[in-house]
Every structure is written in structure tokens, then in C-alpha cells.
Automatic annotation (TrEMBL):
SUPFAM superfamilies: Immunoglobulin
Signal peptide annotation: 1-23
Keywords, alphabetical: Receptor, Signal
This protein's name: Fibroblast growth factor receptor 3
Region Disordered, residue ranges: 102-124
InterPro entries (alphabetical): Ig-like_dom_sf (IPR036179)
Presence of keyword Glycoprotein: no
Source organism, top-level taxon: Eukaryota
Organism whose genome encodes this protein: Labeo rohita (Indian major carp)
Compositional bias of kind Basic and acidic residues: 115-124
Keyword check for Signal: yes
Length: 124
């Protein structure tokens, strides 16, 4: 690691403007506003892994079916525990632009009403 890269990483760790922590419940959709005009790629390190996996790259888009990129957002559909971890956004000059830590929020997934539930509520 070059000294300049180390300084940028250290600065990003200290400055909350570039580092965020987000909590998400299992089953929810997560929108990460990270696809900046100078973003080159996004990597993810899950909480159960030491390695980094590329999940988005400029010109190639998302790298799996659970992700979408739309309007500058990286969208994770149906969030799972495997999606928790750290997301790093790299610039075209191999500099870290944003670091986002995503944590799983304890609790059940959002409930979905069945079509009968509204009718049942009226009959009570």
C-alpha cells in the first residue's frame, strides 16, 4: 500500500462524511447512494469473510442477480445476512471514495398483508 493510499484510508476512517453505518432488516430493500460519477467499482466484504468481492464495475454493471444499479444507487433486493459487511467505492484513480458498513438489524422481516387481512379487519 502506498503511503498516500494509507493516508486516504485513514482519513476516510476518521471523517464521517465518507464513512457511514447503515442498519437493515432481513428481507428489506437497501439503497446505497454510492455510484458517484467518478466511481470505478464497488467491493463488498461480508462479515463472515476476510476477502473482498467486486459487486459493481463501471461499464459492466452489477455482478449478481440480487443487485441493481439505478439513478446512482446500488440497490440490494431482499437483504440477507450475507449482504451485511463493508462496501468500498473505488475511484478511477484507485482511491477509496466511500466506505459503508451495513449491519443486520435484529427482528422479523417486514410483514406482508395477505389479501384477506383487510376483509378480516372489517368484519371485526
Amino acid at each position: 500500500m502506498r503511503f498516500l493510499d494509507f493516508l486516504i484510508l485513514w482519513y476516510c476512517m476518521l471523517d464521517c462524511k465518507y464513512q457511514n453505518v447503515i442498519s437493515v432488516k432481513i428481507g428489506e430493500e437497501l439503497k446505497l447512494d454510492v455510484l458517484l460519477s467518478n466511481a470505478d467499482k464497488v467491493e463488498h466484504q461480508s462479515t463472515s469473510s476476510k476477502g473482498w468481492k467486486e459487486v459493481w464495475k463501471r461499464g459492466h454493471g452489477v455482478q449478481n442477480d440480487q443487485l441493481n444499479d439505478r439513478d446512482g444507487n446500488l440497490i440490494i433486493n431482499n437483504f440477507t445476512a450475507n449482504d451485511a459487511g463493508i462496501y468500498r467505492v473505488w475511484g478511477s484513480e484507485e482511491d477509496i471514495l466511500i466506505t459503508v458498513t451495513v449491519k443486520e438489524t435484529p427482528g422479523p422481516p417486514p410483514s406482508k398483508k395477505s389479501p384477506r387481512s383487510d376483509a378480516e379487519q372489517l368484519s371485526k
